[in-house]
Amino acid sequence: MLAAVAALVPGAQAAAPHRIVSANLCADRLVLQLADRNDIVSVSRYAADPAMSTVVPLAAGIPANREDAEAIAALHPDLVVLGSSHTSRIAAAMLRALGIPVHIVPVANNIAGVRAAIRGVAAVLGVPGRGAKMIAAMEARLDKLPAPGRHLRAAVYLAGGWSSGRGTLADALLTRAGLVNIAAQQGLSGFGALPLETLVAAQPDLLVFEAIGDTGPSVAGSLLHNPVLAESGARLLNMPARLWACPDPAIVDAAALIAGAAQ
Amino acid sequence: MRQYLPQAALAAGLVVLCAISASAGSSHLGVWQMLSPDPAMRKLARLVVVDIRLPRTVLALLAGASLGLSGAVLQGLLRNPLADAGIIGISASASLGAVLAFYFGLWSVAAGGIVGGLAGLSLLMLLAGRNAGTLTLILAGLALSSFAVALTSLALNLAPSPLAAYEIMFWLLGSVADRSWHQVATAAPFIFAGLALLLTTGRALSALTLGEDVAHSLGVDLRRLRWSAVGGTALCVGASVAVTGSIAFVGLVVPHLLRPSVRHDPARLLLVSALGGAALLLASDIVIRLIAIGQELKLGVATAIIGAPFFLWQVLHLRREA
Fold this sequence. Notes:
The complex is a heterodimer of chains A (about 260) and B (about 325). Chain A is an alpha/beta fold and about 260 residues long. Chain A contains 14 helices and eleven strands. Chain A has helices spanning about 1-10, 25-35, 55-60, 70-75, 85-95, 110-125, 130-145, 170-175, 180-185, 195-200, 220, 225-230, 240-245, 250-260; strands spanning about 20, 40-45, 65, 80, 100-105, 155, 160-165, 180, 190-195, 205-210, 235-240. The model of chain A is unreliable at about 1-15 (pLDDT under 50). By secondary structure, chain B is an all-alpha fold.
């Protein structure tokens, strides 16, 4: 009788999954930090990639998967955690049709979004307390970061001449560090092209480049080597992409790099 | 004197376009601000005009001249008004060569574009033969183009860089935006060599309008003509595609529009097509800069929007004649 009631209460201990498959970098990072290691059956192949993962040691020894509904179903999971890309959603629909519970880690567009993502994963894992602790520790570290003396003008400049405008996590972190995001000021919302000329004419004090490990050459990347950027007189900051690519506490390290460069 | 009128008019137009190109951009900085009393403003204006707008202007001129001139030469050589580096798959094969060179470090990017263009053109000549009908040429070009685009996507899928997916757009849509002087310098020597080679084909192309036998009896070395046309196109189109990605239809539209102004003389068409191609591409790039609100339109998209209806009209026109 008691067991039947417990099964009806959402988030009750009885529902906690013990065969968890994570098939997305951001999902891996939260699952590896929040779940019990013995409950994790498989994580994505990116979890062990030091260029993209912040939890490489935690992923050691856990079998890797591809984001492939058929292979995931064969692992008989009682919870699958996925990302929010279009292909992920197709895989999610297929797994749900097979009766497997699926949780999707949402994209965070601001710090509240990061909190929500952590809370969501902790809840489906049946460990809401660990999630709350993770959020509290993250907030405490964020609050300790120094604020810059004046409002410097900054922009993120990505390969291919793209930038992060309003409604992106990068914008939220720049704004929280007391900086003015040039791309948002120019009316860019989300990710989009920021013409080099607009960027230079806005006289940036700080340019944040995003580096995804050692990626080898690319034409889009070569735009970042334009001597004009160095000549603009702005300070240049190389941001490892893994720090702000996912909604998890690694964003504190990204915020710390920004705060340091803005001093 | 009158016979130089089209050249003079186009050259004057180019000067005007270059002046506009130096002044037009996404910021409100102008050339005159390079003379501002404020040294910070002077430096900023110099950076924007000399290091951002000028390389893109030079690149538009060089790529446009390459496409226009190669279009005129290919149309003369194949005696087919639908020949154009883009339509017959040369731009796509040059893109493939450049992508291979860039991602797998086989050659320099410009050399990759040239080798790709050369391979594509040779394959096309083999597939379609010298006196191919319009249909055969277009079909062979279409096959070559699709194949090269597919291989480019495959190469980018296999490339180690996570940015590779973005490059597919870059190569297929073409742009001269935000290129540095270094990138211009990589391609320029090859483009100049290619243009020079193509400009030597004028007399032979004029003779060829009378048919291969007559041209031969007039002392035209047809083998040399073919190799100059193929080599010159591969050099200048290959090298410009390596820096700009493929830009369609310029080589198709320009010679056609200018042919009446030189009384359908293939030899005189060459220089005006080079000037006209440069003018068309630079003008398109200026329009893109002026209408860009938020997202920047890609140059290749703009030329395709102008060029595709023109291509259809050409096809209809040919069908009516047949």
